[in-house]
Design goal:
By secondary structure, this protein is an all-alpha fold. Helices cover 51% and strands 0% of the residues. The chain contains nine helices and no strands. Helix 5 runs antiparallel to helix 6 and helix 7 packs antiparallel against helix 9.
Length: 179
């Protein structure tokens, strides 16, 4: 698909066998095909040294670091923790419902996701579901606060051009601080 002059050309592969030859390592591409340059726009959100954006030896070193966390045996060993974290979510939802509170389900889902993913990837329980706002990892300098703020500062797809966001001088400073 050629989108010139609006954007780069894209190749859309719908045949699985052909897609395999593109994404798997070959003599020409030792680790995989080159990654899209569009990922650079995500660097504020995912960090400049992300597994998603790195290539070649840098990618291999990062991948080696994360591989143990994604082994099936390790993931299965976390099942009791995932179930416990999910039960905690259910308890939070039941308590909010019994109190008659109106709440954003997205915030509860973010906390559950943070608890499970950090347990899986960095083997650390951030207690996102049980930590009150403004304390611990949810404090001004906490990891969860930084993660949420970076997500808010990223440009959302499908929300139009939003020129005021593009020329906002404070936004890049906030993004740099939270990154």
């Amino acid at each position: 698909m050629d989108l010139t002059p609006v954007d780069h050309a894209y190749l859309i592969v719908a045949e699985p066998q052909i897609a395999d030859t593109i994404v798997y390592p070959s003599k020409q591409f030792k680790y995989s095909a080159h990654k899209s340059d569009t990922l650079v726009h995500l660097s504020r959100l995912i960090g400049s040294e992300s597994l998603i954006t790195q290539e070649n030896e840098e990618w291999k070193a990062l991948r080696k670091r994360f591989n143990p966390g994604f082994q099936p045996k390790h993931i299965y060993s976390l099942t009791p923790s995932v179930v416990a974290k999910t039960q905690m979510l259910v308890q939070r939802l039941e308590k909010a419902a019994s109190d008659g509170r109106v709440f954003a389900l997205a915030n509860y889902a973010k906390d559950l996701t943070a608890d499970i993913i950090t347990q899986l990837t960095i083997e650390r329980d951030l207690h996102a579901q049980s930590t009150p706002e403004g304390q611990g990892e949810k404090s001004l300098f906490g990891m969860l606060t930084a993660s949420h703020q970076l997500a808010e500062l990223s440009f959302k797809t499908g929300q139009g051009l939003r020129l005021l966001d593009r020329i906002n001088l404070i936004r890049p400073l906030k993004a740099t601080f939270y990154e």
